[in-house]
Amino acid sequence: GGPGEGSVVEDGAPPAPERVLFPPTFSVSEIKNKQRRHFMFLRWKQQQRKEKLAAKKKRRKEREALGDKAPPKAIPKTIENQRVYDETTVDPNDEEVAFDEATDEFAPYFNRQTVPKILITTSDRPRGRTVRFCEQLSTVIPNSHVYYRRGLALKRIIPQCIARDFTDLIVINEDRNVPNGLVLSHLPDGPTAHFRMSSVRLRKEIKRKGKEPTEHVPEVILNNFTTRLGHSVGRMFASLFPHDPQFIGRQVATFHNQRDYIFFRFHRYIFKSEKKVGIQELGPRFTLKLRSLQKGTFDSKFGEYEWIHKRREMDTSRRKFHL
């Protein structure tokens, strides 16, 4: 900058370091020169950061000085904790919910009358990436079998699955060699959920991954499935895994619902000492977004839908979630 721009030059003395002094109504976007504008913006950001850190330090010192009398820490506002209330949020003690769950399609699994047996298949003639993803998914879900479709319609696969005592059917769809959809159908009576799938990472694409998973039954964690719809989806995922996890294998499969995106992760616990525990990701990982939930098994023509995601009607507020 030129002389007189925030710095005073005395005879023979080196110029003092400039401090950005903008007038109160000044906006960086008013600077016409692109490089100058960018430079000023970066300096302004730097200054903001310094002020923020100084304020944080000051608050911490005040808290330490007050000791036990310090006021409770403020909880930051997030989209999650500002969520619009959903009238279908489940109360754990609700008798109606308890009755519905005792008589729904998953009741035989939760009453230990059936043992999960899963068929994993693909869209017609899958490519390498989808094939590898299916194989890795079968190492996560115990008692699952991968079969590749050769032009066979899903409607014809389902009766064959039921005849062979399969309890669930998972179909991985792909687009341009990338897995992009997952259909999960609970047999023999449904329901069927259709998810959009994104952010798929295979084992070799995960940094610092652990050794191959063992054949132990993993523990299953379901987070934040709070509404009636979320409850149904959570029960669908739970019924894919056998009841008694083998904790000796230290493996855990997590379905974490956040803002209606379901993040799947597969980890192994690493016990460093009696008090310290680390986790090591095994993979694969992927993200799901529910598109529809259908009564009965897969039927795209005459199926009766319990819920369909309609973006224009449902996504009116960023703080409104359905699961």
Q: What does this protein look like?
A:
May be required for ribosome biogenesis. It is found in: Nucleus, Nucleolus. GO terms for molecular function: rRNA primary transcript binding. InterPro entries: Brix (IPR007109), IMP4/RPF1 (IPR044281). Strands 1, 2, 3, 4, 5, 6, 7, 8, 9, 10 and 11 form an 11-stranded mixed beta sheet that branches. This protein starts with 33 loop residues before the first helix and ends in a 9-residue tail after the last helix. It contains 7 helices and 11 strands. The protein has helices spanning 34-66, 95-103, 107-110, 128-140, 154-163, 228-238, 311-314; strands spanning 118-122, 144-146, 168-175, 178-186, 192-201, 219-223, 251-258, 261-271, 277-281, 285-294, 305-308. Mean pLDDT is 86; it is low at 2-9. It has a domain at 91-315: 3-Layer(aba) Sandwich (Rossmann fold), CATH 3.40.50.10480. The chain is an alpha+beta fold and 323 residues long. A hairpin with a 5-residue loop joins strand 8 (261-271) and strand 9 (277-281).
What's the architecture of one domain in CATH terms? 3-Layer(aba) Sandwich
Largest sheet: 11 strands, mixed
Unreliable residue runs:
2-9
Order of helices and strands: HHHEHEHEEEEHEEEEEH
- Counting DSSP H or I runs of 4 or more residues, the number of helices is 7
**CATH superfamily membership of one domain:** Brix domain
Give the distance, in angstroms, between the N- and C-terminal Cα atoms. 55 Å
From the alpha carbons, calculate the radius of gyration and give it in angstroms.
27 Å
Proportion of residues in extended strands: 15-25%
Instruction: Provide the structure class.
Output: alpha+beta
